[in-house]
């Protein structure tokens, strides 16, 4: 049987040359089943490798750049779950789709918990397989792209500071890396403490003008006259106290970035002045008549819903449209709790002095139940609240381990408001299938910028089902 697999492999050898093509390994002891899967996969442009059993599958995994494995669960040599585990170990980046019959659906459900991508119940028709393969193909491509981007971005200073590997953050990295290379304005939205300034700095320091200045202006705390003179500059005697003339940040940036933090708080007359400056690419300092050309990139941030502010008339629509060429929304921490352990790790590392800062030389860790408590909390103040909470806990803890008792009282008393306990971190993470389904649906819609019909198509479900599920989740898009 190994020969037929070799023949099937070599028949497609020339197509594998292209980096665009994905390799699928079809593992089934039934020859006819293998062949019909092969046809569907090849029609979609996959390079196929056919094997009858687990041993041949392992061999192929060693030799071929397999991206997707179609695995018959009733593998003759050993439990399908064992094979899945082995496949995942040998090639963690390969996505496994299980083929199962009704009797083994239970196993398939369990297999999803061990990292299978999805399953098909036999008998399935060609369309079902086609839809699933299309879906897994876009998934694999997006993951591959992410890995590349992250590797690229990691090597740049700015991104090294952003922690997070949840699908939501992966999506954010993709957008950030795209906008970093352009000079369009970017509007960064997100609740307080989600990392808007961090992201703005990352965009600047990954862009072509990273050697130029990054100049933040806090529109939320400065009084209006000060913001105006900060941004546009003033001439001597423009107002009381203006004893000498001053250049505005928009001029000083000289090809760098001006970061307009809390832009939603900008008074309306300054909104008009800013809009004009952005349109005409020149400014007039307060009290002056001379026009000065500007060449600054504008990044703006707000924790307010600016669309509503436009409707209520407190924010100029035309300025909103100009700034919102790219809209980057940082999800609140409660929607990406998978990032909490990573963030905790980073903050503890920092507090241990392991990052080179002088914070003492104790290697700090956290107890499982304290971490579970952090995972269960809703974090209204987002990452900043988590960071403060850990700083405080480290200051209070008597040894290197942060215990439950070191956490702020609000968190210690939060138990009654929290959901079921989270699984221990060092055991396998058990996530209910319904949750996986929900996350898949929501992240697909997000990736497709809210296009629900396209999401339903790609997910291989009807649009009515999708709408019903969204209603169940109570999520607005
Ligand atoms: N993904 C992240 N990884 C590591 N640190 C983060 C992350 N997000 C936020 N932080 C840290 O949390 C703190 C708050 O971040 P930042 O000031 O960028 O938030 P913000 O959205 O601008 O908040 P605000 O609306 O209150 O101004 C900072 O110390 C930042 O370093
Ligand atoms: Mg901020």
UniProtKB/TrEMBL annotation:
This protein's UniProt keywords: ATP-binding, DNA-binding, Nucleotide-binding, Phosphoprotein, Transcription, Transcription regulation
Xref: CDD domains: AAA
InterPro entries xrefs: AAA+_ATPase, AAA_lid_NorR, CheY-like_superfamily, Homeodomain-like_sf, HTH_Fis, P-loop_NTPase, Sig_transdc_resp-reg_receiver, Sigma_54_int
Domain Sigma-54 factor interaction positions: 162-395
Listed Pfam families: AAA_lid_14, HTH_8, Response_reg, Sigma54_activat
Gene3D superfamilies linked to this entry: 1.10.8.60, 3.40.50.2300, Homeodomain-like (1.10.10.60), P-loop containing nucleotide triphosphate hydrolases (3.40.50.300)
SUPFAM superfamilies reported for this sequence: CheY-like, Homeodomain-like, P-loop containing nucleoside triphosphate hydrolases
Gene Ontology process terms (BP): phosphorelay signal transduction system; regulation of DNA-templated transcription
Domain Response regulatory: 23-137
GO molecular function: ATP binding; sequence-specific DNA binding
Modified residues (4-aspartylphosphate): 72
Record's keyword annotation contains Transcription regulation: yes
DNA-binding recorded as keyword: yes
Name of protein: Sigma-54-dependent Fis family transcriptional regulator
Organism: Candidatus Korobacter versatilis
């Amino acid at each position: 049987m190994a020969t037929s697999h070799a023949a099937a492999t070599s028949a497609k050898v020339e197509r594998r040359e292209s980096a665009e093509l994905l390799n699928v390994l079809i593992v089934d002891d039934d020859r006819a089943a293998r062949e019909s899967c092969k046809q569907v996969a090849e029609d979609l442009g996959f390079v196929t490798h056919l094997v009858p059993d687990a041993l041949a599958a392992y061999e192929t995994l060693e030799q071929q750049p397999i991206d997707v494995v179609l695995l018959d669960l009733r593998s003759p040599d050993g439990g399908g779950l064992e094979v899945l585990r082995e496949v995942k170990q040998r090639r963690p980046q390969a996505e496994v789709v299980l083929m199962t019959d009704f009797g083994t659906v239970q196993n398939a459900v369990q297999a999803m918990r061990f990292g299978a991508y999805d399953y098909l119940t036999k008998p399935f028709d060609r369309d079902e397989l086609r839809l699933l393969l299309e879906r897994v193909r876009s998934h694999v491509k997006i993951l591959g792209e992410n890995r590349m981007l992250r590797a690229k971005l990691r090597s740049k200073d700015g991104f090294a500071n952003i922690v997070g590997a949840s699908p939501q953050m992966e999506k954010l990295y993709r957008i950030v890396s795209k906008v970093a290379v352009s000079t369009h304005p970017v509007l960064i939205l997100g609740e307080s403490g989600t990392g808007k300034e961090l992201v703005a700095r990352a965009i600047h320091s990954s862009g072509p003008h990273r050697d130029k200045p990054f100049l933040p202006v806090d529109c939320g705390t400065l009084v209006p006259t000060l913001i105006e003179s900060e941004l546009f500059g003033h001439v001597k005697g423009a107002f009381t106290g203006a004893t000498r003339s001053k250049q505005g940040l928009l001029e000083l940036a000289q090809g760098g970035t001006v970061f307009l933090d809390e832009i939603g708080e900008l008074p309306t007359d300054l909104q008009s002045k800013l809009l004009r400056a952005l349109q005409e690419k020149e400014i007039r300092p307060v009290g002056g008549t001379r026009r000065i050309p500007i060449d600054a990139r504008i990044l703006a941030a707000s924790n307010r819903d600016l669309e509503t502010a436009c409707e209520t008339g407190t924010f100029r629509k035309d300025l909103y449209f100009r700034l919102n060429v790219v809209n980057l929304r940082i999800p609140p921490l409660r929607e990406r709790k998978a990032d909490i352990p990573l963030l905790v790790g980073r903050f503890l590392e920092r507090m241990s002095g392991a990052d080179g800062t002088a914070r003492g030389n104790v290697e700090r860790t956290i107890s499982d139940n304290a971490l579970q408590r952090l995972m269960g909390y809703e974090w209204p103040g987002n990452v900043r609240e988590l960071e403060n909470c850990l700083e405080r806990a480290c200051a209070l803890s008597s040894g290197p381990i942060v215990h439950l008792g070191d956490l702020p009282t609000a968190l210690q008393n939060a138990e009654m408001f929290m959901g079921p306990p989270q699984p221990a971190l060092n055991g396998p993470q058990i996530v209910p299938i319904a949750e996986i389904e929900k996350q898949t649906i929501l992240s697909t819609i997000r990736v497709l910028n809210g296009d629900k019909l396209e999401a339903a198509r790609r997910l291989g479900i009807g649009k009515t089902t999708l709408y019903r599920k969204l209603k169940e989740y109570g999520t607005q898009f």
